[in-house]
Amino acid sequence: MSANIVVKDLSFYYNQQRVLTSINLRVEANKILGIMGPANSGKTTLLRVFNRMCDLIPNIRIEGEVSLNGENILRPDINVDKLRKRVGMVFAKPVPLPRSIFANLTYGPRLHGIKDKKRLEELVERSLRLAQLWDEVKDRLNESAMKLSGGQQQRLCIARTLAMEPEVILLDEPTYGLDPISTSKIEQALQSLKKNYTIVLVSNNTWQVARVSDNVAFLLMGELVEYGSTHEIFTVPKDKRTNDYVSGRFG
Amino acid sequence: MATRINPIVSQRIVKAQLWSLTGFTIGILFFIIFFISIKGLPQLSIEFLTSNPVDMGRSGGIFATIISTVYLVFVALAIAIPLGVGAAIYLTEYTRETRVTHIIRFGTECLAGIPSIILGLFGFAFFVMSLRLGWSILSGGMTMSIMLLPTIIRTSEESIKAVPYELREVSFSLGVSRWQTVTRVVLPGALPGIVTGIILSIGRCIGETAVIIFTAGSSLRLPESFLDSGRTMAVHFYILAREGISMSSAYGTGAVLIISILLINLTAYYLTRYFLKKYATFR
After folding, report:
1. Total structural domains within chain B
2. Residue A45 belongs to a domain
3. Looking at residues B48-69, what average pLDDT do you find?
4. Can you give the CATH number for the domain in which B206 is found?
């Protein structure tokens, strides 16, 4: 179960100031799209449009269309809670809820109506395995999630999103501030996840984008400079600015 | 030539001064507790606590006044907690800072500044007379709840705001609605602060006299329902001392009052610590 996202002429305004300028983009199903770009290029904003987390920011205006499997998700009457169940999100800073590992994973599913204990246990195990955390925590599921290390916490957050059985997973710099080993575990997890999910990864780390993405979008000052396969972007970019950015000759 | 004071000496002097100021404050507290205890504790006995006043309180115990106090606190809290916590949730979670929320906040601050005697008069005019509830525990409790609202709103708001925003964000991102987020994530985190606010309000309820004389009356009978008039411990103390009925019973009541307020504050302290600890194990 996975989905594609089509972005058509998307512009985003915050306090009358344009943050994203007519973005056109296609997130393909069962692929990883890497979004890269310097700070303030609008990466996170774009990501937060995909699950309407941008609604939490006051004084915004959105133009254009974003459709998930053909359904426009920017319509005002769309049920954002259902949308966010389908389009999960992992934040830069791992934020476990102040409860046990098990309860962290079942928090979402329970509130979406899954009560059966057996089913919840299956979900927990499956999600933790997918996030490559199962072996490390299987004996202490009832311990506080706050006791996990930073890298483990981030994988817990990925597992928590997976437990919702989403179609799309959005990751906003998921390895920010993590050590190389934790980072590579998360990257491995992402590689195996794309079989069943559509993934959008925002990263400041150009090499991470090169390592894990199938397609890459390069944003600069709210504009989509270039979009193509990872191979194209990193070997034969069409735009000079992309070339400068990926070869580290930027700014 | 003016002699300059050695910095070490001045440091010592200032330290001694500050210490004595602090000591003075604590001293007053201990003096009051000591004074009431000396005069009041000898009056206390199981019988004093469990029998009803006889002959206007010249003899007998204070059972009826204890029950009236408990009823009154119950009514006041039953009204003030849902209203206050609800208002705090609305102000913090459901609105953005606008002119309207500023006005609401300013309003609650003003409510906190109203002298209790004025509130008592209002309660008398509105609940006792207009709504024809008479002098009753219900009128008294409702008036008291108005007095408690600002404290409960303020403390609840502060502790709700102290719950990290990221937790809400995570909850929303999992497709959990705002109300579910409030009940599952925000309120459990804010509970210690909210409970502290509530317990401090109980203390204020127990100690209040002006409001209660106007609204709940001063009947010495054991109240049988919330529509009966009742005399709380603080009012009983006031009347016994003021009318010179029985100073020894007055001090006995005073001792019970002080001990119960002390106990409530201690409970508040330990309950808060318990909740914090429980929450902290998940930190």
Report:
1. 2
2. yes
3. 88
4. 1.10.3720.10
Kindly state whether residue B1 falls inside one of the protein's structural domains: no
Same domain for B241 and B130, yes or no, is: yes
Residue of A nearest to B96 (CA): A58
Chain A contacts to B (CB-CB under 8 A): 51, 53, 56, 58, 80-85, 88-89, 91, 93, 95, 97-100, 107-108, 111-112, 144-146, 157, 160-161, 164
- DSSP classification of residue A144: B
Each residue of B69-78: pLDDT tens digit? 999 999 999 9
Neighboring chain B residues of A160 at a CB cutoff of 8 Å: 170, 174
Which residues of B are less than 8 Å from A80 in CB distance?
Answer: 175
* Contact criterion met (CB < 8 Å) for A53 and B175: no
Beta carbons within 10 angstroms of residue B189's beta carbon:
21
B283 has a pLDDT exceeding 60:
no
What's the domain range around B34? Answer: 13-43
Query: What was the ipTM of the complex prediction?
Result: 0.91
Digit-coded pLDDT (tens) for A100-117: 999 999 999 999 989 999
Q: What is the largest CA-CA distance in chain A?
A: 56
| CATH number of the CATH domain containing A208 | 3.40.50.300
User: pTM of the entire structure?
Assistant: 0.84
HEC-encoded secondary structure of B54-71: EHHHCEECCHHHHHHHHH
Domain co-membership, B214 together with B131: yes
d(CA A20, CA A134): 39
Question: Of A223-227, B85-89, B218-222, which gets the smallest average pLDDT?
Answer: B218-222
User: Cβ contact (<8 Å) for A164 and B171?
Assistant: no
